[in-house]
C-alpha cells in the first residue's frame, strides 16, 4: 500500500462554532517505526539563514519533529 500526502499547511483557523477550541499552534511528529520504504517527511518551503532548499527528514525510531504553525504575533505561518 502506498500513501502520499501532498504539500499542505498544518495550521487551521479557529472554528466559529467551537470557540473553546483554539487554532493549532504547533505540530509534533513522532516516528514510531523505521525500516519501511519511504516514509520521509518533507518541508518544501523550509528556509533558514543558509539555504532555501527543501528539508527532508528520514524516519528513525525515537526521532521527533516539532514545528510551529503560528508566528510569534499569532498569525498563521504560511511556511508551516
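Q: What amino acid sequence fits the structure above?
A:
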Amino acid at each position: 500500500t502506498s500513501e502520499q500526502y501532498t504539500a499542505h499547511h498544518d495550521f487551521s483557523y479557529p472554528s466559529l462554532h467551537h470557540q473553546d477550541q483554539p487554532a493549532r499552534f504547533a505540530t509534533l511528529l513522532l516516528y514510531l517505526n523505521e525500516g519501511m520504504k519511504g516514509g520521509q517527511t518533507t518541508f518544501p518551503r523550509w528556509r533558514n539563514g543558509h539555504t532555501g532548499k527543501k528539508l527532508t527528514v528520514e524516519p528513525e525510531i525515537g526521532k521527533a519533529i516539532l514545528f510551529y504553525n503560528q508566528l510569534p504575533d499569532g498569525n498563521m505561518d504560511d511556511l508551516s
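Q: And what stands out in the fold?
A: Residues 39 and 76 are 26 Å apart (CA to CA).
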